[in-house]
Design a protein that fits this description.
The structure holds three protein chains of three kinds. By secondary structure, chain A is mainly α. Chain A contains 15 helices and two strands. The chains are: A mainly alpha, B alpha+beta, C alpha/beta. At the A-B interface, helix 10 and helix 11 of A face strand 6 and helix 2 of B.
Chain lengths: 305, 363, 367
């Protein structure tokens, strides 16, 4: 019985995937990824299509006619440019701070000779991954709120309570904390790829640690730095939860504006236009980062190294 | 130039370097030879300044360097895996120490081409390390370590990863460059040939301790103990007891035979010893060749266990029943007889007393 | 009670039998028997708001409906704004919508009706006996049934107002309350009030909203917090805010939880609005039938009494007494005098203008 099933399966497979194609077996595993990217492209196509139709307020449907009204609306309303600028600025600030903090972390984790320290750093790195973004945002509310941990300490010391949440800096703080593990994770292999001998060589050649860091470690870690910067930048640029929860409603990012367009005012066309704009700007900036950092920073082209 | 006084270094319970002392005059090429884990690299890294001794002193140019960081020591170092900067060209690698050490920027290009010329890499200035062959990378590493005219050059087994032919070529190249510049050099290796070929002086280390410190010839011909005798060259070792000591040397009883050996340390009759005889010092006698002329002090007959063909020679591993089944190694450099000798299974071997050494057996 | 039910696939005769029984008594078991002949779905999914809202619907409508019909009711707490595009997409593509009954703001429900996503409810029993506000305005027929009205009150922390309740909404501009004022994140419930607080009159709505925008610009300097229903309760609980414009239900729920919150109707008035229930198109016949019975049940005297007293809101079923704690409360309008203090904007005007007001609000607040 089982044998019959196996034989039948075998026959089926040999018809669908003849043995002549077995040389391509490796590529078979690429199919899901290709399919995913393909679906994403199709979705983007739909978005583009939606974005070119204006909403008819008498039926709440998109008008048949093609127009650039939605894009015009975005340009006309300063709020969208402001929100866009706020998202970009946050992406920049968060990227700089996060990478700045993540680098020593990754470096210490790779170089420490103490197994206990490395273990601690690893656990501290992976623990936040088990705690979602939303929960972590609420964690900040508990710590930084008016009656939160920090303000309780302040008032306990007879100091005035501070407004620490529901503002832009709070969003930045939440995002930095959220992004840190991603950045460390992406930087660690890059740092680990730098042999300790190279650093010692630099020292023996007359460089102090700062010079070694600047002329050897940083350039050699560039692939990791670019990779983690791109990831942190794009994740921040498109973030929704942190501005939603920690921003107090007045520090919206583009994603929040897209959400509002889709759901609050049911304007799919406008939301799609914002999404297309975000995709374009994000892609352009990432391309720019790769161009400035040089080709092959992801170690794709210079594999022989 | 370099003086090391009673230096020790431990990692946890492991004594990597145990009370080591040495002195190296200016311009000499010293090789520290020993098996992996013997402490030679640890010692080298302490000289470079990458770690500090637990006890003892290191002096360079007469000054103690304990509190001098690596980048302030005038030491060029070539690393085992070269540690070239992959993001810099060959010329940039060589220029790096010059920039870091504040050389006049106007003189740097000239100096860089001077040293690239020294290592015969003209025309490769703009290549990145990964665009160079293994030998060329070695040359960049040397040029980089020497371009700032360091007082001392350290070599941390840089040739160990190369194939045999290239390694032998680079050994001569290192020696040529070192002699051309007269730079004081300390080389670390586990390769006895490399040590013998390149060095003015060899230090043999084992288990953190210096075993012998001598010229290459002395290390080879007069190993100071059983370890050195065994580590350098292909040596047979077997136990025996001193039968008598006379003007010509000693007579050692091994199994059923009494062998004549070179007079070693003062030995008293009855003391148990390890006998050492190198493969190339044993002669193979033809089956019908008798030692009646008395050319050799010792003659034995053994059974061939193994024949190892190495191209230019044959190595026999021979068991001698009358020597309490001791195993001897013998080279046969006579290719025309390779095929027939040892086929019968028996070999007649002979050697002279001056070539056989005895060391007191370790308690 | 008419022949309108016949399109839904059961015999007129059978229906008449059922209604005859129902007429016999209003007791719940009979309600079940009355409709016993159409195949019951395994459950009804009703989209609802969470917290005090969902609890009241469960206790006041869903549980008694299940008891009467044997049909389990599952509350789906998907955000009202998020369920809307899902229903629309399902209706457009001819798929079965994800829920049976949507509990929605009248404005959003009207928008869904304009988009043609709603089933007409004109054949429901008992609609005639309800207050006139039960029927949606500015649109034909009964695409939805309003079930109660509610007021966006001025909720405040009494400790922050030692001299008594705030008399004017303009107190929100007092620098003393910087960072301690809260509104809904789209400005809903406050837009018409802001016109009056900003120096205009109700007559300016919707043609001259500038006074409202001026008020928002001033308010922006005071760094208000913007949130949803649940946020207000949390914020009051954690001492983050002193004053908020929120639906009385949230303030009352907070108070019932022991949080020190009171509410008032300041001199400019408060916005009064309605919520309703509607059924998306595209349900299987029997499920649509039982969904209608659910709404029908929700406007019976029993359901209205329990549901609305739990919410603390005036029902659309006439003649019911307010809960004890709300008797005479300005947020529980009963007499015409009560309604005079409140500002009501007709649904058609809201449908047409609310997206514009939202956009302008966010433009000012995101600055």
């Amino acid at each position: 019985m089982t044998l019959a099933i196996l034989q039948r399966t075998d026959r089926f497979v040999s018809v669908v995937w003849p043995s002549g194609l077995h040389g391509m077996n490796g590529y078979l595993f690429l199919l899901p990824a290709v399919a995913l990217v393909f679906i994403l492209v199709i979705a983007l196509g739909y978005m583009l299509e939606f974005s070119l139709h204006e909403l008819d307020l008498s039926t709440y449907r998109l008008k048949e006619a093609y127009s650039l009204t939605n894009y015009q609306t975005i340009l006309d309303r300063p709020v969208y440019l402001r929100v866009l600028w706020r998202s970009l600025l946050a992406a920049l600030i968060v990227t700089v701070i996060t990478v700045f903090l993540a680098f020593p972390y990754a470096y210490l984790m790779v170089r420490t000779s103490s197994a206990a320290t490395r273990k601690f750093l690893l656990v501290a790195l992976f623990l936040p991954f088990f705690i979602g973004q939303v929960v972590r945002a609420y964690g900040w509310l508990i710590i930084l709120g008016k009656q939160g941990l920090l303000n309780s300490i302040l008032t306990g010391l007879g100091l005035p309570a501070l407004d620490l949440i529901y503002n832009y800096p709070a969003v930045i703080l939440g995002l930095v904390q959220y992004m840190l593990p991603f950045a460390v994770l992406l930087l660690t292999p890059a740092v680990a790829a730098i042999s300790e001998d190279v650093e010692l060589a630099s020292e023996s050649l007359g460089a102090n640690w700062l010079q070694t860091f600047r002329h050897v470690v940083i350039p050699m870690a560039t692939p990791g730095l670019v990779g983690s910067s791109v990831v942190v930048f794009t994740l921040t640029l498109t973030d929704f939860a942190m501005p939603e929860i920690l921003g107090g409603g007045t520090s919206d990012f583009i994603a929040n504006a897209i959400y509002d367009s889709y759901f609050q005012i049911s304007n799919i066309g406008l939301g799609a236009a914002l999404a297309i704009l975000l995709t374009l700007i994000g892609s352009a900036l990432v391309a720019l980062m790769f161009m400035i950092a040089g080709t092959g920073t992801l170690a794709v082209t210079e594999a022989e190294e | 130039m370099v003086e090391i006084c009673d230096v020790s270094k431990s990692f946890g319970d492991f004594r990597a370097v145990d009370d080591a002392s040495l002195a190296l005059p200016k311009g000499e090429f010293l090789t520290i030879l020993g098996p992996s884990g013997c402490g030679k690299t640890t010692l080298l890294r302490m000289i470079a300044g990458f770690s500090k001794p637990d006890a003892g002193k290191i002096l360079i140019n007469g000054g103690e360097v304990e509190n001098v960081p690596p980048h302030k020591r005038s030491i060029g170092m070539v690393f085992q895996r070269l540690a070239l900067f992959p993001h810099m060209t060959a010329a940039q690698n060589v220029a790096y120490p010059l920039k870091m050490r504040g050389f006049d920027t106007k003189t740097i290009p000239d100096r860089v081409s001077e040293y690239l010329k020294l290592v015969r890499l003209q025309g490769y200035e703009e290549r990145r390390p990964h665009q160079l062959s293994g030998g060329q990378q070695q040359r960049v590493a040397i040029a980089r370590a020497l371009s700032f005219s360091p007082d001392l050059l350290l070599l941390d087994e840089p040739l160990s990863a190369l194939d045999k032919k290239l390694r032998e070529e680079m050994q001569l190249e290192f020696r040529r460059i070192q002699q051309e510049l007269g730079v004081t050099t300390i080389n670390v290796t586990h390769d006895q040939r490399e040590a013998l070929v390149m060095s003015d002086k060899i230090i043999v280390m084992n288990a953190g301790r210096i075993q012998q410190s001598d010229s290459p010839e002395a290390v080879y011909r007069a190993p100071s103990n059983r370890f050195v005798a065994n580590f350098v060259g292909l040596t047979a070792l077997f136990g025996g007891a001193i039968e008598r000591v006379d003007d010509e040397g000693v007579v050692v009883r091994v199994g059923e035979l009494a062998l004549r050996a070179r007079a070693g340390e003062a030995l008293t009759p009855g003391a148990s010893v390890d006998c050492a005889i190198r493969a190339e010092q044993i002669r193979i006698l033809a089956d019908d060749e008798e030692n009646d002329t008395g050319r050799f002090d010792n003659t034995v007959t053994g059974k061939v266990d193994q024949r190892i063909f190495e191209g230019d020679r044959m190595v026999y591993q021979v068991t001698v029943p009358k020597l309490a089944d001791a195993t001897l190694f013998v080279f046969d450099h006579d290719p025309t007889h390779h095929a027939e000798r040892g086929q019968s299974g028996a070999l007649k071997l002979a050697w002279n007393a001056r070539d056989m050494l005895t060391f007191p057996t370790n308690p | 009670m008419s022949d309108k039910n016949t399109p839904f696939g059961f015999g007129r005769r059978r229906f008449l039998q059922g209604s005859a029984l129902a007429a016999g008594a209003l007791a719940l078991p009979q309600f079940a028997l009355a409709h016993g002949h159409t195949k019951k779905p395994s459950e009804l999914i009703v989209r609802a708001w969470g917290g005090a809202w969902g609890e009241s619907l469960k206790a006041g409508v869903a549980d008694p409906f299940t008891a009467a019909t044997g049909i389990p009711v599952r509350l789906d707490f998907t955000e009202d704004n998020e369920i809307k595009p899902k229903i629309w997409a399902a209706v457009d593509q001819g798929r079965v919508p994800p829920i049976h009954v949507n509990w929605d703001t009248t404005t959003n429900a009207t928008i869904s009706a304009l988009r043609g996503a709603t089933v007409d409810l004109g054949d429901l029993k008992g609609l005639d006996g309800l207050l006139s506000i039960a029927k949606p305005t500015g649109i034909d027929g009964w695409p939805l049934v309003n079930t109660y009205s509610y007021v966006y009150v001025c909720a405040y922390r009494p400790e922050a107002f030692p001299d008594g309740p705030p008399k004017s909404w303009r107190v929100m501009l007092d620098p003393k309350f910087k960072g301690r004022v809260a509104l809904y994140d789209d400005g809903i419930g406050f837009n018409p009030i802001a016109v009056i607080a900003g120096g205009g009159t109700a007559a300016d709505i919707p043609n001259n909203m500038e006074p409202a925008y001026a008020f928002y610009r001033d308010l922006k300097k005071n760094e208000p917090l913007l949130g949803e229903d649940a946020d207000f309760t949390t914020w009051f609980q954690n001492g983050e805010i002193d004053i908020a414009c929120t639906i009385s239900v949230n303030a009352r729920a907070a108070k019932q939880k022991g949080i020190n919150v009171e509410w008032t109707v300041p001199q400019e008035g408060c916005k009064v609005d309605t919520d309703g229930l509607w059924i998306p198109k595209g349900l299987p016949e029997n499920e649509e039938y039982w969904s209608k019975r659910f709404i029908e049940f929700a406007v019976t005297r029993e359901a209205q009494e329990k549901w609305c007293s739990l919410l603390g809101l005036p029902p659309v079923f006439p003649g019911l007494e307010p809960p004890a704690d709300l008797a005479g409360d300005p947020s529980y309008p009963t007499a015409p005098a009560d309604f005079e203090k409140l500002v009501s904007v007709p649904s058609p005007i809201l449908v047409e203008n609310q997206p514009i007001w939202f956009a302008k609000f966010s433009e000012i607040m995101q600055g």
